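Q: I have 312 residues here and want to know how they pack in 3D. Can you give me a structure?
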Amino acid sequence: MNEKVSIIIPVYNAENTIVQCVESIVNGTYQNIEIILVDDCSRDSSVQICRDLEKKYSTIKILQNKQNQGVSYTRNRALEIVSGQYCMFVDSDDWVDNDYVESFVREMKKTGVGMVISGYVNHDEIISGRVDKFGWKESMECQINDRIEDLYHNRMLQQLWNKIFLVSIIKEYNIQFDESISMGEDYRFILQYLQKMESKKCILIDKYLYHYIRGEGNSLMSKFSEKDVSQQIYNIKLMLPLMKIEKQQQEIFFEKEKAVIEEQYAYMLMHRKMSVAQKIKKMKSGIKKGWIRLYVKMSFLLLKEKFAKIMK
């Protein structure tokens, strides 16, 4: 078991976290790795820290974007130069367990599946340092078509970093990150990959190998825009052919998830500091059909939340 693994880490203003992130991988139990750090024009000392890490560890390669391009462009640049048989993605403000890479490679090598998915630990720095674990009680092999709805609803499918990918599939079908969107690009990449897997078998391993740090800067809802609503809904459409249910059930599932996405957007929008006219304009643009109902519903919810704070 000595297949090479390419690990892609986008870097942007990560001076306080990049060392812990990289060294959690380098000091792990699996050694045949290359770590590709791609700096997206950081404004802090990230670049110098990355260069110091490159000097210290022979497994590290550094790329630098000429201008700030975003995480999708950054990952696509790294994909152009990967030399491993397998590919993994890690975020620069997170860290991994000692056997993170080894556990994934072992299952890929042993079973010959196209994807392995692990559990993860969510460290919430917004809500009093709360720590939650997401995963399974036992490892299992499954058809992704049978489990995709469950994985989606339990937020185990949408992330890159709790998975391992075959580079051969990525290269053969030129699977890339969509640089035109700012939310849901990870999930779209995963869906495109799953569509191209000949065997839809995957392994779910009963380990919490990845440590995701949720802080103010990486809160998705803080960046949710009306454009993102349509992109999230489009991702649901891409997911439907992978589901092992009848077309009528697919349509029911789609309408239900579409409503959830629109309600999340409406909730976020009502909590933004902007005028009523601006909120209405954005809600009409993002939701269109049914926006009035959601506006009224969220207005009452906002009043209820304010009243609850007053009564404390």
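Q: Anything worth noting?
A: The first strand starts at residue 5 and ends at 11. The first helix runs from residue 18 to 26.
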